[in-house]
Amino acid sequence: MGSVHIIYTGGTIGMVDSPQGLVPGADLAGWLAGLLPPSRPPAPGLEALESTSLAALEPLIDSSNATPESWQSIVEAVRAHAADHPGEPIVILHGTDTMAYTSAALSYALAGMEAPVVITGSQLPLGAEGSDAEANVLGAVRAAVSGRVIGVALFFGGLLLAGGRATKSSSWDFAGFASPMAPPLARTGSDGAPWEWSENHGASGASTSPTAWTEPRPYARHDVVVLDMAPGITGARLSALLDPLPEAVILRAFGVGNVPSDEPGLTEAIARAIRAGTAVFVASQCHQAEVLLGHYATGDAIARAGAVGTADMTLEAAYAKAQFLLAQGLAGTALAEAMGRPIAGELSPRR
Ligand code: ASN
């Protein structure tokens, strides 16, 4: 593996101070040229790296401004590069705020692609003292050229995670991402020590899923709403939040997927949405969760109404998957059924 292609999309990594707060503006190309071979003796794992190319997307964004259309721009940039350089590893530099949504979205849309894709960013700008930018970029490039990543992965704070399994776990810690329901694909050792690869390091598994789309339709902005339950929510409030009806709802419920079943009109509001053709998914507010509707009476009523649990998917994976499946033309019951089938390793097989 002699080369890597880097796609820069924005995020704190390339930001500089301004009177309005952090904005894109750092000399990322110059910084990368100084960081990666041949200008520096290669960092461990990069001995075979001979050349790097860089493309920047327009406009560079804070990832809080990302939309499904932004995911599609990245998909197209990756595909365009892969068409001319088949199999060449790709690293994506991205803001951390919605990086886990993007990594899940890319893992569905790029499932089956030969080239490994590793996404990263940083908590501090590359020019800030003690920044995590250098360690994260070197780690992402090392993972990308390792020959061991299948599909899309996310590297951050010493962990390599499957793209569809990651979640942002801290707004400030350098260990900013976690994979609560799947082991990391690899962990870095300290000071150049060898990485520890997990046995299922190919678990991003994009090329292996029989249900993957080989030529998916592009992401577009579909009306998917994420709603949180909280003690005291009323049926009237939930009904109002669902009017007009979205194409899909992800209800972030309690524990294994419980909602307040004693609350008049609340289960009925969910059932009404499903009858009208909206797919209703039940996720959990727990950081680490497997949704099991029907385990308690409080989850059973909505399951009988046709709501479908998101199993052990992260919210990010479930949201991006709902957007992906809607973009493929699925709706209602077909969408609900497809949610339970893995596309790119985002979901554990049912035990
Ligand atoms: N707001 C930034 C972003 O997501 C946060 C970061 O990159 N650390 O673009």
From TrEMBL:
Classification via PROSITE patterns: ASN_GLN_ASE_1 (PS00144), ASN_GLN_ASE_3 (PS51732)
Annotated spans, Disordered: 188-215
CDD domains: L-asparaginase_I (cd08963)
Active-site annotation: 12
Coiled coil stretches, renumbered: none
Entry EC no(s): 3.5.1.1
GO BP annotations listed: amino acid metabolic process
Residues that span the membrane, as ranges: none
GO MF term list: asparaginase activity
Boundaries of every L-asparaginase N-terminal domain copy: 4-193
A Pfam family the protein falls into: Asparaginase
InterPro entries in the record: Asp/glu_Ase-like_sf, Asparaginase/glutaminase-like, Asparaginase/glutaminase_AS1, Asparaginase_C, L-asparaginase_C, L-asparaginase_I, L-asparaginase_N, L-asparaginase_N_sf
Domain (Asparaginase/glutaminase C-terminal) ranges: 223-339
UniProt: substrate binding residues: 63, 96-97
Top-level enzyme category: hydrolase
Family of the protein in this entry: Belongs to the asparaginase 1 family.
Protein name: asparaginase
Species this chain originates from: Actinomyces gaoshouyii
Lineage of origin: Bacteria, Bacillati, Actinomycetota, Actinomycetes, Actinomycetales
